[in-house]
Every structure is written in structure tokens, then in C-alpha cells.
Amino acid sequence: MLTRRIIVCLDVDGGRVVKGVQFAKLRDAGDPVELAAAHAAAGADEIVLLDITATHEKRATLLETVRRTARELMVPFTVGGGIRSVDDASAVFDAGADKVAINSAALADPTLITQIAAKFGSQAAVVAIDARASAERSHFEVKKTGGRDATGRDAVAWAREAQEAGAGEFLVTSMDRDGTQDGFDMELTRAIAAVAHIPVIASGGAGAINHFVKVFQPGGADAALAASIFHFGLIRMNDLKQHLRQEGIPVRWPC
Amino acid sequence: MIAIVDYRAGNLTSVKKALDRVGAESFVTSDPQALAGAAKIILPGVGHFAATEVLATSGMSRAIAEAIGREVPFLGICVGMQWLFETSEEAPATRGLGLFPGQCEHFPLEVKSPHVGWNDLTRERPSFLLAGVPQNSFVYFTHTYRAPVGPGSVAQCEYGGTFSAAVERDRVFGVQFHPEKSGEIGLKILRNFHEVPC
Questions:
Q1: Nearest-5° angle of CA A4, CA A9, CA A13?
Q2: In this complex, do B117 and A223 lie within 8 Å of one another by their Cβ atoms?
Q3: CB proximity list for A157: less than 8 A, separation 6 or greater
Q4: Chain A interface mutation, best of B13, B110, B122, B139, highest count of A Cβ atoms under 10 Å
Q5: Is A252 part of a structural domain of the chain?
Q6: Confidence band, pLDDT 50/70/90 cuts, at residue A52
Q7: Which of B13, B118, B142 sits opposite A3 (nearest CB)?
Q8: Could you read off the pLDDT of B119-171 as tens digits, one per residue?
């Protein structure tokens, strides 16, 4: 049976993981290469590396980080942040990524999704959607440039368009929940999952094991992504997967 | 040396890296003549079935078929496995090698596609490639078309019905999943391929 995936995210700036990290027994706690390998060894089903600065000068650093991280990983590896063209995507694939996550550039030009899917396959084209609930929570608005700027677009409408354009997966982040540890945004996840015929990765707000149970069962997510709780060791992958299994949610266990 | 066939549709870096990890020497080539000196051949691929068309036009198909005729061990991964079948709905005009019978088909519409993630293997009969791989081991899949279960199947997978997850006939092997992305189990499978006697 196809299992639900638990994905660990590394937010990287200039070659260093920037969200607080307290991983035991690591010589260099902020090194993405060591962290990625440690999470994979602990049972992470997939690793996502997001370049959160993505300034021009730092791209070379990013590619070197991707190259070194990919060398250590025997699980799927997605890279996102600052990918604006097929050439940017090619460079990241050449460095060893299996998938790219695109966001602002896809909003500006949805054919970028089609171009990447045509060249590398849909499975390699992850469309990241950062969304915030409207004031009355009647719908979800898409944000761009790392959640800073409004787009005036409805998240569900954008998801339909992106999957028509050739997206292979959605990475849906709730800007309202990100960093709060209050749980995933169930309404947002359900709204996207209801129209998606491709896998949906829920992100933003994970703080407890029960949050994962909910986002999979009523939420309809195919995968759930988190960063800090794993870096800080607030939730151990072992405990999380055992619990999910007890709840009847299929997971890759033992890894 | 294991030749990794480059046809501009593959995850060559990952495959090469994983082979390095199991101590198997390999080289990447798009030159059909280079296969003459290869001890083994791997055909990777995550692209479109039509991308295998370039194998025919470059003379690579024939070089692979000849190598298989000389009993050179061969492993096809993902689309590289599908290519061992006759045809695929994805590109009906493109012919596969036809070593295994049948056509690759799209997943039924009631399940999401692509089929992405870790799914388990149901082993069906003894297999050299899967030796030491426990029943229901998890491996990583990402594909939109699937190969039918048939006499060559050594493992099945379930997703909107069953399909061939691994096939084997003499020294010809195919896996629908990505051993290079499947953690320790994947490395075990690549090690088994490395250990197929030449």
C-alpha cells in the first residue's frame, strides 16, 4: 500500500541551515549535509532543501550545498527557492536534486511548469503554494516572494491551473500556521486536496504527533512536511511513525 | 565496469552515486560502441516513454539487444524497465525491446497519478535481484504508467490494481521503482546486480 510520507525541510541561507537546530551528536549543527543525512537515517521519507535567500551571489553556494547534500542521500531530494527558469532548474538537477519546487516564477509564468515537466517529467516539478486565509476565512490567497507579497489569486484556482500546466506535486504551506506549531491548516489542505489529482504535501504548523494524524486522515494530505520540530528533536521520527501506524495510517516503517 | 546509458532522460547522477556507494565501478555513456566493453549495463530513466526513441535512432537499442544476446547482465530502471516491454500507452508509436509481453498503461483515473512515494513489494518467486530483500519491503516509486504483471514478474506492487514492480528473465532485470532512492533496500538491490556473475 502506498504510504503517507514524512518530509523534513531544511531552510538554507548561504549554505547554512537557518532555523534553529539542536540535533544531537552533530559536529556542525547548521550544516545541511550532515542534517539531511541524519534525518534520512532517522527515517525521513524525503528531504526538501529551500534556499530562503536565493540572491544571485549565493546561487553558487547553493549549488555546492545541493551537490554535497545529494551525495549523502539515498532518499528523494527536492530543492526550491529562487528557481526562475529552466536553466536554473537544470543546474539544480545536475547538482543531484530529484525534483525542484517552484513558486513565484511559476505564478509569473505558468508555462515554466510546463517547460520543466516537458524536460524532466512532471514528477520532477513540484509547485509550492504559500497561502493565507482571507479575513473572513472564505477563501485562501496565494502569496509570493517567500510569503511577502500579495498576488490577489485564489489558492484553489491557482492549484487547478498549475496542475493543468503539468505540476507533479503540490507543496502547500499555510502562512498563517508557519512557525506557530499550532497544527496544519486543515481547511487549506482539504481545499487543495479536493481539486488535486496529484499528491499534496501539507506544510506549516506541525507541533505535535496528533497534527500529523489529522492532516492525513481528515485532511487528505499525501505527505506532511516540517522543519523545526525535527531539528529540535521535539518529535522523534521513530515515535511519529509508530504512532501513525497505530492509528491505521500507512507509513514506511521500519525504514 | 557497469555502463550507465545516457539518453538525456535519466537520473544519472543518483544512479552513479549509488553504485559508488556499493563499490561498483561505472561510467556514463551515450555511445553504443562503448557497450562492447561493458561488463554490465544499466538503463535508467525518469522521463517520457518517447524519450527512449533516441535509443533506436542512435543505434543504442541494437547495441543493448546485442549485449543482452551475449548474456551481459542488464538492469532497466523506471522507464528503463518499461522499455523492456512491447509498448506503452504513453507513446504508442515507440517500440520497446519486447523481452516481456504486454503494454504499459496509465493508472486508472480513480487514483492520483503520478504514483509517488514509498510502496511495498510483494515478492512472487525466487529472484536473483531481490535476494535478501524481505517481503513487503518499501521502495520509492514515481511514475504515471505501469507495466502489467506477467510471467517475468518477480515482485508486484498495489496501487489502483497490481502491476509489475520488478521483472527478471535470465540476466535481464527491470525495476519500476528507484533503487538509487530507496535507502538501504535499494542499495541491497544494486549490490545484488553488481554481484550477478559476468
A1: 165
A2: yes
A3: none
A4: B13
A5: no
A6: confident
A7: B118
A8: 999 999 999 999 999 999 999 999 999 999 999 999 999 999 999 999 999 99
ipTM: 0.91
Total domains in chain A come to: 1
Choose from A2, A63, A90, A200 for mutation: most chain B CBs within 10 A. A2
Mark whether B180 is an active-site residue: yes
- The set of residues, in sequence order, having a beta carbon less than 8 Å from that of B97 and lying 6+ positions away, is B61, B64, B65, B68, B83, B84, B85
What pLDDT, in 10s, does the model give residues A183-216? 999 999 999 999 999 999 999 999 999 999 999 9
pLDDT tens column, A80-124: 998 999 999 999 998 999 999 999 999 999 999 999 998 888 889
Decide if A106 is inside a domain: yes
Contacts of A223 in chain B (CB under 8 A): 117
> Active-site residue among B104, B180, B194, B198?
B180
Does A122 sit within 8 Å of B118, measured CB to CB?
Answer: no
A13 classed as catalytic: no
pLDDT in tens, B52-109: 888 889 999 999 999 999 999 999 999 999 999 999 998 999 899 999 999 999 999 9
Nearest to B90 by CA among B107, B77, B109: B107
- Find where cell 513540484 sits: A126
**Can you give the residue range of the structural domain that contains A51?**
5-246
Say if the Cβ atoms of A45 and B13 lie within 8 Å. no
User: What's the CATH code, domain B2-194?
Assistant: 3.40.50.880
Containing A69, the helix (H) or strand (E) segment is helix A59-72
Tell me the three cell numbers of residue B145. 504508467
Instruction: Supply the CATH number for residue A91's domain.
Output: 3.20.20.70
